[in-house]
Amino acid sequence: MRTQSTATTQYQSIRTVLDLFRQRYPQCELRMREVLPVDPFGPLRAGSIDIGILWLPVREPDLVVGPVLHREDLVLAVAAGHPLAGRHEVELEDLGDHPVVHPEGPIPDYVWEAHTPSTTPAGRPIRRGLGIGTLEEAFRAIADGGVVSPIGSDAASTRQRGDIVFLPITDGPVLHYAPVWRSGGETPLIRAFVQAAAEARTRPPSSPGSHAGASRTGGASDIGA
């Protein structure tokens, strides 16, 4: 089974789900792939993955959303020389004073709004600056100092670098991730994965281990994250 996620560091956060599914279906090889945040639904609709672990909301008539698997705080990424860099924390209202990156891709506006709001709590517009297609492009643009951006704390924790500072957002949104699949492409393996996800939410995380791959044939599946 092929699964995919918008953040590679989510692997550890959904590890209990993967382990439980593998225990029940050892003949099924899981293959983790990365989803570009600017095109969260494209791989699902193209059939290149079976399940996507995507941030919510997802309001697409051709897609089904499962139980929440993971929650992630957002931090603000700014250049080391940026005026905000000396702060210990920021508020969403601060985004009204600085342009933010915006995605160049087919991501719906309502999905991006959950990540980077278009207005501050006081109603001021948050200006869109440089367009980006990948997380690495976002980091390069942020390091240049022309834009700032909310970034998932998981991604920030694995990308500590001298030219970017990550600041807690005291009133920032929290991203909720859930399995998503095509309504017309549900299979017994997909139902089994979603069942494992529902049960794993009440179980403690397991110890770290290695990744595994999978294909859709011969009892295999791809997961996108």
Summarize this entry quickly.
The chain is an alpha/beta fold. 24% of the residues lie in helices and 26% in strands. The model is unreliable at 205-220 (pLDDT under 50).
What overall geometry do the principal axes of the alpha carbons give? elongated
Intertermini distance = 13 Å
Helix content, binned percent: 10-25%
- Relative strand content: 25-35%
**Major β-sheet annotation:** 9 strands, mixed
- Count of separate DSSP helical elements: 7
Low-confidence runs of at least 5 consecutive residues: 205-220
What is the number of E strands? 11
Order of helices and strands: EHHEHEEEEHEHEHEEHE
Mean pLDDT: 85
How many whole angstroms does the radius of gyration measure?
18 Å
- Given helix and strand content, the structural type is alpha/beta
If you had to describe this structure to a student in words, what would you say it looks like?
There is one protein chain. By secondary structure, this protein is of the alpha/beta class. It has seven helices and eleven strands. α2 packs across α7. It is elongated. The two termini are 13 Å apart. Mean pLDDT is 85; it is low at 205-220.
